[in-house]
């Protein structure tokens, strides 16, 4: 029976829940807002399946020894694709290819009340909800069960997720199915939903309004610097840069990530997935000349399937090879886990005591100097026309 004594050894992937033959495992949020398995012991038959499918309890090494290929790339389609993509829009042709093959795509979507969950798509239209970054952990629910069902029926599957979710899927399935293709979104770690909920609640109170949606990668002013927009029920919007948003700054400073993120064994090269995508911040090259600050992606292929996928989509990309050393320099998340912020325990102790997120921001989150002096967002309020 799976029992989480060390929270650094659970990534919340739900593989155990999906594998349980008695369906007696629930995923329950702890006091920090992260999901962990909870076994209904009176129904458990002690079969051990939950422990066998836990990838953090086993030293699986996917793609070890494969010589990865590295690219800088962006989608050559019209601006609409790039505008609605987090970086270079490379995921979209992957989805187009898979749907065109009669396959299905799995990805993370942002739903009501800012809940992020994986879902299944059989049409390109349905894949649109997988675009853009979501800086919250996705609830996988029954996704692994559905993936297995699709593979057994002969369908091709593209599964996209953060690397621990990809690794967990492979462990759950027990083998690398011929029709399974995986894409990992190179990850900085997943932040606390409980912290996010308090941030939103206090923002609603401050604005006397209700936040209804968030875009973590608003490109109206270009790809960089990154802007975040929050829309309210009144039609107004709050727009800040990432570093002016206290929740995002705490995330970037590794203050309230999931415990397992600080010990992530999937933050490595080669990647656990067939093909991996990330922002290519700080890139210097000819590719930028025609990009017009619309977004640029790192693309890493770490298997023969990854190379195959890139061959299928490269005609839809503007791309050039990139040096491994450059990729590693510009994106540390490709090869190393985030460092635990030494204020994390103190932050959560005060968070649980009921202190406001606003007061914790002033104490623990290092906003830009001008922002600290003003102690308020530099905002632009926009009204719907």
From TrEMBL:
SUPFAM superfamilies: 4Fe-4S ferredoxins
Provenance organism: Candidatus Scatavimonas merdigallinarum
The protein's name: Coenzyme F420 hydrogenase/dehydrogenase, beta subunit C-terminal domain
GO molecular function: iron-sulfur cluster binding; metal ion binding
Short name of one Pfam family: FrhB_FdhB_C
InterPro entries: 4Fe4S_Fe-S-bd, 4Fe4S_Fe_S_CS, FrhB_FdhB_C, Polyferredoxin-like_ET
Domain of life from the UniProt record: Bacteria
The organism's taxonomic lineage, starting at the top: Bacteria, Bacillati, Bacillota, Clostridia, Eubacteriales
Keyword Iron-sulfur: yes
4Fe-4S ferredoxin-type domain mapped to chain residues: 1-30, 35-54
Annotated keywords: Iron, Iron-sulfur, Metal-binding
């Amino acid at each position: 029976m799976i029992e989480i004594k060390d929270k650094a050894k659970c990534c919340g992937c739900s593989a155990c829940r999906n594998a349980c033959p008695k369906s007696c495992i629930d995923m329950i949020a702890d006091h920090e807002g992260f999901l962990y398995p909870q076994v209904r012991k009176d129904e458990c038959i002690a079969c051990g399946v939950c422990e066998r499918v836990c990838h953090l309890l086993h030293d699986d090494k996917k793609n070890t020894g494969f010589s990865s290929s590295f690219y800088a790339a962006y989608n050559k389609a019209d601006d609409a694709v790039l505008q609605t993509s987090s970086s270079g829009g490379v995921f979209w042709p992957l989805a187009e290819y898979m749907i065109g093959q009669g396959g299905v795509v799995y990805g993370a979507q942002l739903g009501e009340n800012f809940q992020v969950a994986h879902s299944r798509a059989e049409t390109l239209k349905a894949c649109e909800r997988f675009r853009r970054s979501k800086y919250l952990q996705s609830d996988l629910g029954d996704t692994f069960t559905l993936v297995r069902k699709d593979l057994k029926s002969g369908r091709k599957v593209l599964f996209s997720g953060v690397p621990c979710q990809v690794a967990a899927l492979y462990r759950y399935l027990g083998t690398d199915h011929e029709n399974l293709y995986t894409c990992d979104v190179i990850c900085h770690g997943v932040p606390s939903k409980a912290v996010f909920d308090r941030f939103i609640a206090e923002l609603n109170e401050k604005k006397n309004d209700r936040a209804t949606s968030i875009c973590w990668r608003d490109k109206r002013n270009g790809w960089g610097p990154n802007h975040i927009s929050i829309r309210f029920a009144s039609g107004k919007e709050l727009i800040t840069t990432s570093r002016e948003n206290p929740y995002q700054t705490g995330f970037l400073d590794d203050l309230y990530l999931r415990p397992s993120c600080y010990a992530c064994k999937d933050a490595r090269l080669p990647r656990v997935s067939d093909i991996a995508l990330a922002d290519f911040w700080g890139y210097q090259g000819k590719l930028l000349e025609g990009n017009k600050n619309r977004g640029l992606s790192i693309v890493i292929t770490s298997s023969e399937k990854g190379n195959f996928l890139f061959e299928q989509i490269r005609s839809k990309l503007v791309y050039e090879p990139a040096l491994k050393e450059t990729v590693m320099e510009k994106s540390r998340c490709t090869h190393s886990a985030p460092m635990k912020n030494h204020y994390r325990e103190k932050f959560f102790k005060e968070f649980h005591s009921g202190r406001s997120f606003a007061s914790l921001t002033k104490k623990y989150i290092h906003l830009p100097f001008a922002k600290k002096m003003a102690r308020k967002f530099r905002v632009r309020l926009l009204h719907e026309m």
